[in-house]
Specification:
alpha/beta, five-stranded parallel sheet, about 50% helix
């Protein structure tokens, strides 16, 4: 009955959309406009009354009603209409600049998901500051922000808890950086405001994760350290610009990704911290033997055996280590922090030295007591393996004891350690392995000495963890703004 003849699409800078219709019943053409309360009311001269008559427009009263509805967290749309000439087939922004008749307000509730509230709290605990950027009314944005925990219920004071697009437009880049850091909610923003906000926070050394779904969000998504597009409601432009896409459009997924990322990074560092001491220890043993001009405590083929078996059966098991309790209670890692920090380098050096000293010392002891080189080398190999095996339990957490994590919380580690022990028995006592790797059977006393080295390494590193916690406590790094 009223087919659409033309339209003005919604654009953030105008904050309204207009459509031109042929009113076939009345033989006229009429424009309908919907948008923000501010953008619609300034274009209206009168209003439609309940009985269908045209009456006087009281803009102040309507603004008051809009403020009251927005304060309850309702999203608002204002509606107006304008009759135009019957020969008009297109409309422009000039056509709807004034003279419209106000029709009414529509208030909608878009309640936040319960999981989003939980996710915001988890992010804040993890040192991630969450900020809201929206085109909604200021009071609507603030009410929702308070509901989900982005803005404090008592936030206010001299500076408004909400920064609107009009204020952003007149702020210098330096002023905006200060406001952006201390403000949690940004309302009635234009696309260029989003880009300026991202840049402003980056000038303060922040790492920015920016979410968006529209074409106008693309510049800010590209500028952010991590651009996150919506997979369901997002435009193709936003998806192509972003670094990652949320397939479920759920903020809680971002928090889950951060948690998973921390767990993966933890396990990577654990593996590096576990494997390097072995390489250093083996290198030191060979170097010491060469300098001293004595027989090698371990041969190249035995080094190959150690590295091949332990890397698969011990080190790989750290990849299955569950996320540590309280992983989201830590502050973020500083972006420029090296993979190996000073405390970890010290730990690697300590373990590498103890492995070297144990293997070299017991090799020399065995030779000096009249044992064959094959037996002495087998003892040295088992010192390395037992040391790595016990040290593996240290590396299940870089800061906590394995008993705090739960001895049986990673069955893969226990299975790998058990299989490694079986292989070492095979390596030591099976004739075929003796011929292939130059090994030889050793006594129970020799086994106890090898295991003793591993126990000493374990206890020393547990004490080192206590010292590290005292002198190198976790420090807050750069925050991530979402």
């Amino acid at each position: 009955r009223m087919p659409r003849a033309d339209a003005i699409p919604f654009e953030s800078q105008h904050q309204y959309m207009a459509t031109l219709h042929d009113d076939l019943d009345k033989g006229r053409k009429i424009v309908y406009l919907k948008g923000s309360v501010e953008s619609v009311l300034i274009r209206c001269n009168d209003k439609l009354l309940a009985d269908g008559a045209i009456g006087m427009l009281n803009a102040e009263e309507l603004f008051r009603q809009a403020e009251e509805l927005a304060g309850r967290g309702l999203r608002l749309l204002a509606f107006a209409c304008l009759e135009v000439a019957t020969d008009k087939n297109t409309i422009s922004h000039e056509d709807v600049g004034q003279g419209l008749t106000f029709l009414g307000l529509q208030a909608m509730i878009d309640p936040p998901r319960p999981e989003a509230i939980t996710a915001v709290k988890a992010c804040q605990t993890a040192g991630i500051t969450v900020k809201m950027i929206t085109g909604d009314h200021e009071r609507t944005a603030l009410a929702i922000a308070r509901e989900i925990g982005i803005a404090d219920k008592t936030e206010g004071g001299e500076r408004s808890p909400v920064l609107n697009g009009r204020k952003i437009a007149v702020l210098s880049d330096r002023e905006l950086a200060d406001y952006a850091a201390s403000t949690s909610v940004f309302a009635r923003v234009a696309p260029e405001d989003k880009l300026r906000l991202v840049k402003a926070l980056q000038t303060r050394g922040e790492s920015i994760a920016m979410t968006g779904d529209g074409v106008n969000d693309a510049p800010a998504l590209r500028q952010a350290n991590i651009g996150i597009a919506m997979g369901i409601t997002g435009t193709d432009v936003a998806k192509e610009t972003a670094d990652m896409i949320l397939t479920d459009d759920n903020f809680a997924t971002i928090e889950a990704a951060v948690e998973e990322g921390r767990g993966v990074y933890d396990n990577l560092i654990k593996f590096i911290t576990w494997t390097l001491p072995t390489n250093f220890g083996e290198g030191f043993v060979i170097l010491a033997a060469v300098i001293a001009g004595i027989a090698l405590p371990i041969t190249p083929v035995q080094i190959l055996w150690i590295n091949m078996t332990t890397a698969v059966l011990l080190g790989l098991m750290l990849a299955f280590e569950p996320k540590e309790p309280g992983i989201m209670n830590r502050p973020p890692r500083p972006p420029h922090e090296p993979v190996l920090t000073v405390p970890l380098i010290i730990r690697i050096g300590i373990v590498g030295f103890m492995l070297c000293a144990g293997a070299f010392g017991f090799f020399e002891w065995a030779v000096q007591t009249g044992r064959s080189e094959a037996v002495a080398r087998t003892i040295a190999v088992n010192v390395f393996v037992m040391g790595e095996l016990l040290y593996l339990f240290n590396c299940r957490s870089l800061r906590h004891s394995m008993f705090r994590l739960g001895l049986f919380s990673n069955y893969w580690v226990l299975a790998g350690a058990f299989i490694m022990l079986i292989l070492q028995i095979v390596f030591t006592y099976v004739p075929l392995m003796n011929r292939a790797f130059g090994s030889a059977p050793i006594s129970l006393k020799d086994w106890l000495l090898c295991i003793g080295v591993g126990i000493i390494i374990y206890l020393v590193i547990e004490m080192e963890k206590k010292v590290q916690e005292k002198f190198f406590p976790l420090k807050a790094g750069a925050r991530t703004e979402a």
